């Protein structure tokens, strides 16, 4: 990967973007590891970390993104990373509504109202310990993730969009090794610092592929 000028990232989301850990006594956002990994390749980045604990996609996060973009030049951000939906799901919002009334609006906001050089990274929602994969509420999460994947896979300009499938890369229920699970999971919903570092590594891997294309 060749050295580039400093890249500007916007990371918008909820407590999983904020890096909520140790029951809120400390924070370790994935942006720390993301910055370190790019820096190790002599690619400086700055991350506008906009993770708000408890935030819902509908309507709060949509409005936050709109305000953030309206206050910046259209070419200000090189990458915009969006992760949301966990809190909406916890309030029994249907996956299809979270996507159509929230995430899809945010994705289109980025793709239609920024410079063509601005790239969008969309992330699936990780599972949690509250609900098994067979539970009705987790089925809504799975529906939401399918819609996120489909949006990325069917968007025409593949150079502008990147799917980061956290759901497949940071499991809970299928992770049978208790020591491995305890190393990354903090409570029933959030991650430990090592888990957020794993998020950063996954994001780095997918975005660096796009940069190299």
Keywords:
213 residues, two-stranded antiparallel ribbon, 9 helices, 5-stranded parallel β-sheet, Rossmann fold, alpha/beta
Characterise the protein shown here.
This protein has 213 residues and is an alpha/beta fold. The chain has a single domain (7-212), classed as Rossmann fold, CATH 3.40.50.1110. The protein is 48% helix and 15% strand. The strands form 2 sheets. Strands 4-1-5-6-7 form a 5-stranded parallel beta sheet, sandwiched between helices. A two-stranded antiparallel ribbon has the order 2-3. The longest helix is centred in the last third of the chain and has 20 residues, at 193-212. The termini are close together. The mean pLDDT is 95.
CATH class: Alpha Beta
Total count of domains: 1
CATH superfamily: SGNH hydrolase
CATH hierarchy: architecture: 3-Layer(aba) Sandwich
The SS-based structural class is: alpha/beta
Number of distinct helices: 9
Ends distance? 10 Å
For the secondary structure, the number of strands is 7
Helix content: 40-55%
Principal-axes shape call = globular
What is shown here, in short?
This protein is α/β, with parallel strands linked by helices.
């Amino acid at each position: 990967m060749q050295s580039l000028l400093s890249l500007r990232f916007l990371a918008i989301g909820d407590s999983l973007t904020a890096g909520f850990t140790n029951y809120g006594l400390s924070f370790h956002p994935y942006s720390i590891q993301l910055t370190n990994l790019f820096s190790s390749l002599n690619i400086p980045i700055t991350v506008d970390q906009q993770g708000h604990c408890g935030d819902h996609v509908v309507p709060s996060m949509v409005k936050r993104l709109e305000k953030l973009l309206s206050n910046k030049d259209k070419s200000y951000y090189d990458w915009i990373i969006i992760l949301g939906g966990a809190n909406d799901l916890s309030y029994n919002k249907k996956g299809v509504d979270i996507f159509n009334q929230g995430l899809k609006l945010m994705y289109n906001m980025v793709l239609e109202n920024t410079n063509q050089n601005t790239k969008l990274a969309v992330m699936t929602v990780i599972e949690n310990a509250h609900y098994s994969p067979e539970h009705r509420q987790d089925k809504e999460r799975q529906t939401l993730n399918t819609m996120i994947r489909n949006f990325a896979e069917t968007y025409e300009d593949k150079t502008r969009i990147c799917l980061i499938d956290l759901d497949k890369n940071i499991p809970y229920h299928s992770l049978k090794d208790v020591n491995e699970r305890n190393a990354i999971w903090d409570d029933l919903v959030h991650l430990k610092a090592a888990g957020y570092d794993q998020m950063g590594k996954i994001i780095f891997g997918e975005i660096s592929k796009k940069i190299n294309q």
